[in-house]
Specification:
Blueprint (H helix, E strand, L loop, with lengths): L2 H28 L5 H11 L6 H13 L1 H27 L3 H14 L6 H22 L9 H6 L2 H10 L7 H6 L4 H12 L5 H13 L12 H4 L1 H15 L2 H16 L4 H29 L1 H25 L6 H30 L6 H30 L2 H21 L8 H9 L1
């Protein structure tokens, strides 16, 4: 098998793995968006038919954000489970989306050859984006939007089948090596991911250099090391700043239909515009994954992050201009679709996996959990307060909650983020050490 043929085969296998983990994650992140009116009617009936706007906003915030409680628990289980169950087994055993999501990000980072590590890492975001389309599309009136029980149940059989896929991929060679597995098992894993003709000795030598940097002991007892040790502190700040640019996405994939209806977009058009956002997100994620190992992380992440922030600011502008001339609302629709596309091109995928490329293996799962935990707190706070702020000061709230924090984060990223494309992790960590 040629190197190209093996790379295509490996990407296909890893994509199936990402699909198995992210199917329900992508669906559950967007199915509330398009049938927002039906959910409002359901809540009103459940509360006796006299629900005020304030009561609705409170319940809607709780429904949207209660999911993050389980996600947060899974984040804190991540370091404990990772080095005991491994990347593959943890995804199988997990009952929390956060644990499975973090497992697949690490798996996609550690398993492929370095030259396609970026493309492989994009597969998690690609699969997530694909199923956000399913969530928004099924929630339209023409499909299952008027039948909420069938909408919420539609993903269950597929997710159950997807779990089967997880049993047919081996553990990563890095995990096997650091856990003291038999040498033949480690070499089998290397050949599975790198090809039958791979130079096993050279690959394992690079892995051993990375593992030998520090003994493996990634538990929450080491959390203060992320602050005390300079290169880990820098990696933590960089990763958290990158993830700050992901915070706004949740507000818009949850509430874009509401925002568009408020600028006088017809309800049916607003719902399909939400689906168009997800299509743009998916298509651009595929494009980003195609070029990330050619152009590098910085050349994709930084420009598209600035574009993403600009789209939020411009949407705010168009929403205000719509009050003067109604035709500006269509520019608002186009801006949200562009927002989703710029996020897909690199903001989301790279931000979620960059911590793994900046951190030695001892601290990798701990760093990942710390960054995701901080990000989850930011997301919960912003999604809880955005609707009260929105109904108080309108779309200006987006400038305060999203544009301003992201602008500061982007300044730090632009100055300090190293390029990680095509480099071994121990080399990147040495650069951070200075």
């Amino acid at each position: 098998m040629t190197s190209t043929a093996h790379s295509i085969r490996l990407i296909a296998i890893l994509f199936l793995l990402a699909v198995a983990v992210n199917w329900q994650y992508g669906f559950s992140s967007t199915y509330l968006n398009t049938p927002v009116d039906q959910f409002k009617e359901y809540l009103n009936e459940s509360l006796g038919g006299d629900m005020s706007e304030g009561t609705y906003n409170l319940w809607w915030d709780l429904i949207q954000n209660i999911w993050f409680v389980g996600f947060f628990i899974g984040i804190f289980l991540n370091p404990v489970l990772n080095d005991r169950l491994g990347r593959r087994c943890r995804a199988i055993a997990s009952t929390f989306t956060a644990v499975a999501f973090q497992a697949v990000v690490l798996y996609l980072q550690e398993s492929p050859p370095t030259h396609i590590r970026g493309t492989a890492s994009f597969l998690s975001e690609i699969s997530f984006a694909l199923f956000t389309i399913e969530g928004t599309m099924l929630g339209t009136d023409e499909l299952l939007g008027n039948n909420l029980p069938w909408l919420t149940a539609s993903v269950i059989p597929i997710c159950a089948f997807s779990v089967v896929i997880l049993f047919f991929v081996p553990e990563t060679s890095k995990f096997l090596l650091m856990s003291g597995a038999d040498r033949s098992v480690v070499e089998h894993s290397v050949r599975f991911f790198h090809g039958p003709d791979a130079n096993v000795a050279t690959i394992l030598k690079e892995t051993e250099i990375e593992i030998a940097e520090e003994a493996i002991s990634s538990t929450w007892s080491s959390i203060l090391d992320l602050v005390r040790i300079p290169h880990l502190r820098k990696a933590l700040i960089l990763a958290v700043c990158c993830l700050q640019n992901c915070v706004a996405l949740w507000t818009f994939i949850y509430n874009s239909t509401l925002f568009l209806e408020d600028i006088n977009i017809d309800s049916g058009i607003a719902k399909w515009a939400a689906t168009a956002m997800c299509v743009s997100y998916f298509v651009c994620t595929v494009i980003g994954g195609t070029f990330v190992d050619r152009w590098g992380r910085r050349k994709i992440l930084i420009p598209f992050s600035y574009m993403n922030v600009a789209c939020i600011a411009v949407f705010t502008l168009f929403s205000q201009l719509q009050k003067l001339q109604d035709f500006w609302k269509y520019f608002g629709v186009a801006t949200l679709i562009l927002f989703a596309g710029s996020y897909g091109c690199g903001v989301g995928a790279i931000s979620w996996f960059i911590s793994s490329e900046l951190t030695p293996i001892k601290y990798r799962t701990l760093m990942q959990s710390a960054c995701y935990g901080i990000n989850t707190v930011s997301v919960v706070i912003s999604t809880f307060v955005v609707l009260p702020f929105y109904f108080w000061i309108g779309t200006y709230c987006f400038l305060i909650l999203y544009c301003l924090p992201s602008a500061f984060a982007l300044i730090y990223i632009t100055r300090n983020l190293p390029e990680t494309r095509g480099r071994e992790i121990h080399d990147i960590v040495n650069e951070l050490r200075g």
